Amino acid sequence: MNKIIITSLMVLALAVIPIAHAQFGTPAYQKLTQLIIDESENIQVKHVTGVSNSPVSVNLFEGVITDSIIVTNEDGKELEFGVSGMPDYGSVTIFSPDQNAIIKYDLKNMFRQSDNLLTLNIGYPKPFSILFSEKTELIFLNNTMIQLGDKKGISINNGGYVNVEYYSEIPKQIEEVSWRENKFDVEIITDSEIDKFNFNQESKSITFQINEKNKFVTINMKEELVGSPYTISLNDEKILYNKSVNKENYVSLSMKPQAVGEIIVINSEYVQDLNQNTSNDNLTEVTTNNPNDYFIWLVLGGVLIIVVIVVIIIMRKIKK
């Protein structure tokens, strides 16, 4: 490999340029910047640059393994290049970029793992994409669920840092429910322990107990089972969720409960109808008597009787 480590020229340049930002050559036009993750969570980075008449430089991702850097043209011929600014903010300088160049290298120590969930926090100042292995079907990008389907990748169009999470092995719990004489599978994906699952056919609602907080919970089911739009509550308080629907009318609802307790997934229209049917406008008013009212009526009745008796006595005396 025709690798050149810049020495004396670097010493002179670094006297005025901080090492974290050291860069030789003009910034390359990057036609493609891509991270490829295999089934063992190894990451290979690939940059494809355009043609230039002068040396160009390409910033590298943090965590690069220096010995893995390879620079070739489109025909596979290795090109001369230099590396600077390692280990934190490295860059590669290509000295003769008279063809499209391809830079490849590996990253190390990029994943954190908690239980079954892998977390990758990574960033780059230019647009880049991430390709996942075939086994990865579901990811969470900045806490937003994404079903990969056939695409197997995402594009970060504006660059910047992203937080990507996904399961090394998807933890599934499948519950069979009946509705309108049909049977449906409700799939719950989570690292948290859940129990007390129940489907209420009348209210078209699903409830279950979540026993750990700050864990992703994803529900996959036939959309007609509960029906859109949805309301999701944790301990009777509405919580945020995101939704996706695939071509077979299966809906995925994902949330990250901040406390333990009961999750309720219900049709919003049913809740609205229920509230309307129990509003004050539709209730029969019932008036109850205050106990003091009875006492007042007794006093008035007594006074009236006395008045009548007095009138009778007076009338009798007049007649005599």
Overview of the molecule:
- The protein is an alpha+beta fold and 320 residues long.
- The protein is built from four helices and 26 strands.
- It has two domains: 165 residues, Immunoglobulin-like (Sandwich), CATH 2.60.40; 101 residues, no CATH class.
- The strands form five sheets. The chain has a six-stranded mixed sheet with strand order 6-9-4-3-12-15, with no helix packed on it. A five-stranded mixed sheet has the order 1-7-8-5-2, with no helix packed on it. It has a five-stranded antiparallel sheet with strand order 10-11-16-13-14, with no helix packed on it.
- β22 and β23 form a beta hairpin.
- The chain starts with a strand and ends with a helix.
CATH topology heading of the largest domain: Immunoglobulin-like
- Classified by CATH, the class of the largest domain is Mainly Beta
Strands ordered across the widest β-sheet: 6-9-4-3-12-15
Oligomer kind: single chain
